[in-house]
Amino acid sequence: MAKRTQSSRDRFVEMAAKLFSRHGYAAVGLNRIIEKSGAPKGSLYHHFPDGKEQLAAEAVAWAAESFTDTLREEIDIAPSVAVAIRRTADRVAGWLEKSAFRDGSPLTIVAVETGAFNAALREACRQGYAQWAAILSAALLAEGRSEQRAEARAELILAAFEGAMILCRVQASGEPLRGIGRQLEEILQ
């Protein structure tokens, strides 16, 4: 069976997400995304007529969906949300270690760099976080927590994960995230 070729649009989105996670939004220009994606320059402007901002919003959505898949997978196979959260933390810590702590969360980086002054990118990040919170809340509700408690715990999990990922990069260690995973497992049991 022939391998499906990734479209130039998809290559731009995925590469933008990867470059933003590693270098930040401000440090990555369109020429670098074009070069690293290997896609033709003309197709960038065809797919993203509004330029970098439009591409960044779609890259944030792609990154959010990628993590959504990981989160759903862990929730589906774990015996509890508490265990799923710890396993997810371990998994993400492993990804950070594999990248030598160069990669991070594109949502966090884009939100921190642009959230105060770019409504479109702030909204893209908000939607990504809302997607994750909804999955977590639904899983916690299914375990019998109240809606208010489930939503509060989902927000705690997201804030803890994002903060721990920053600490991992600063400390060049996966332990902050693994530690948060263990603490969240305890809290959620």
Written overview of the protein:
This protein has nine helices and no strands. The relative contact order is 0.13. The N and C termini lie far apart (46 Å). Helix 7 packs across helix 8. The chain has 189 residues and is mainly alpha-helical.
Roughly what is the average pLDDT, rounded to an integer? 91
Number of strands: 0
How far apart, in Å, are the first and last alpha carbons? 46 Å
Secondary structure: helix percent:
over 70%
The radius of gyration computed from the alpha-carbon positions, rounded to a whole number of angstroms, is: 17 Å
Structural class: mainly alpha
Largest sheet: none
Return residue spans where pLDDT drops below 50 for at least 5 consecutive residues: none
Number of helices: 9
- Our estimate of the beta-strand percent is under 5%
Q: Overall 3D geometry? A: globular
The arrangement of helices and strands along the chain is HHHHHHHHH
